[in-house]
Amino acid sequence: MYRTTPLAAAVMAAFATPLYAQTTTPATPAVQIEQAATSTSPASQPSASQPSESSVLPAVRVSGQADNANDFQPETSSVGAKVPTALRDIPQAATVVPKAVLQSQAVSSFSDALRNVPGITIGAAEGGQIGNNINLRGFSARTDIYLDGFRDRGQYYRDTFNLESIDVLYGPSSLYFGRGSTGGVINQVSKEPTLRKRADVSVQAGTHDRYRTTVDLDTPITDTSALRINAFGQSLGSSRDVMKNKDYGVAPEVKFGIGTPTEITLSALIQHNRDQPDYGIPPLNGHPAPVNRGTFYGYTDDRTIQDVQTLSARIKHRFNEDLILRNQTQFSHYSTQARATNAASVLTGPLSTSPALTSGNFTTIDPSKLFVKLQGKDRNINDHSVYNSTDLEAKFNTGPLRHDVITGLDLSHETYSNQSFTATSPGMTSNTIGVVPLIDPPYLPRPANVKEVATNLAESSANGVGAYVNDTVSIGQHWKVVGGVRWDRYEASIHNSINTPRYATQTNYFTSVRGGIIYQPADWQSYYVSYGTSFDPSLEALTLTNGQQNLPPEHNKSYEVGAKLDLLGGGLSVTQSLFNIEKTNARTANPDGSYTLDGDVRVRGYQLGLAGHITNNWQVFGGYTYMDGEILKAFDGTQGKIPANTPKHTLTLWTTYLFTPHWEIGGGPTYMSSRYAANNNFVQVGGYTRWDAMAAYHAKRYDIQFNVLNLTDKNYYDALIPSDGGRAVPGYGRTFLATVNYRFF
To answer: Does the keyword Metal-binding apply (predicted)?
Structure first.
């Protein structure tokens, strides 16, 4: 039975104490609360003309965005400038997926939430990497996922139970985020305590044995402090055979000094996952093998056990309206124990030594006469990180120019260890557990006579220092010029017990820049051009391929031109952009096995985004991206190829209509054109269109909602894995979900 770690237990007890100590309901704070009702029901929202029943105390100012629980149209994001900034003032494409969209779609997983973001594709568990693996505009964003502004580098499957929104900034952005961010960054924005009491419970059940419960409790402690606790538990089956996940988590947060010059926030995320890893279906004749969607290549007792503990402390002091100082510290620990199996080579016979197909597995042999080698992917992974960030925001004038300057200092320390194992059955080649038929493999526990041996232990550490300054200069009423520079020092080392290199260390220095010009002729129009850079050290993920240890960082640059318009009286936001991202010195393998920085990878394209109201009752959220990706230069045979997992077309659209005060319907498609599983372009995965739908009844205290995922039961492939020729993980089959949300206040 799983036991809570001492750190997790201590954190849970510390945050639970104030809640239990609050034995009586506090009086309604005598403050003017500038927030909308927090109910998720359209029927329960007050009208704009409804008078406030609260009295006003000028000494207290409640900050933060309104909790527009049903609104698809976000107005600000902190991902483009580290502080909440109007989207129209960010000279880059940005997409904010609000909580309202996720609730309408009954979304619970991080990967499913990102299907609302055009230009994103999903990768699956790959090599030593487990958890959410994301491609953004054709480039890997595995280490570019953030939680409340800090790098969330752990290899785990993220949940949305404590998220207010998911903010995506496209293009190289090392100015604010340091290393990485070739295609962009993804920031998870957590829910925060408010001075409005709430207690919400959600229960969900669905086909394929899907069950989930979430709780959201928010209670004032004093007139200027509050405690909020979000929690979830779930047991999820799948349209894939065998697959089963059991997860739970809790996220307590307490905030002091709400509305006062000094605000202090303490928060934690504690999550436990026990999931079944899915390494997908092997290729045959250049495409995923023609097997039933539910076919699973592995053992029934495969498992991935993940534990996450993240502690954060934030303080913000407002000297006046024009000078704000912030400091944040975050400590995270991630652990993963994986006993997994993947479908490796496709064999022409039933023995582990039988000849294997290669290069897309082209053959004229009948699939019923082919076999699949099963290999172990067992490993124990531990990640630790400590981050500290200090920034000062100052607004001032120099003659006719208005400046908004943000300057800051980022410090980081990270460690990583990965103990890998080989698992071999008697009489089979090394790290081969079994050989099963390609068609209708049996589902059995891992054989008891499998011998598991510890192999390489990789231990890494890194220290980073980054200092930056960015200035947004307002010139008159219609023009803004954005410019910034950042200096980074990134020092990392790795030690391998068996693999080569046995030891490697590197220290990288890099200067990143960002610039943009914004023209805003009216309050509903914003046009911009921008340029940005970023860098990718070879030890960026604290793992290393032999031959890369002495290479300098890869360089990335982006050019973008776009427009952000608020149409239909400001109710509908429409964004458009043309972009060009290029990695000018990509690492590339030479014929002799060495690596050089002579590669060149470019992705250019067009992006369209929609968010908001077409009418008062009709909402829409979605986008389209065209990506023209090409490996311009490489010595490993991939020159002229299309980068892996980079489809030319991606489209997502979700729309809802409230046709009475209580009844709402919605739905929409997700489209993705064909793409390749690996840079060699041997294996192509076909395009697809998936349709989802929903219907809901809203009352003052409760909602009843029905969702259908993959309405037409489309057989499609979702996540791609480049290894072993290129594997593909099937997407959901048709799934029905019923959700009941109840609000006690």
So the answer is: no
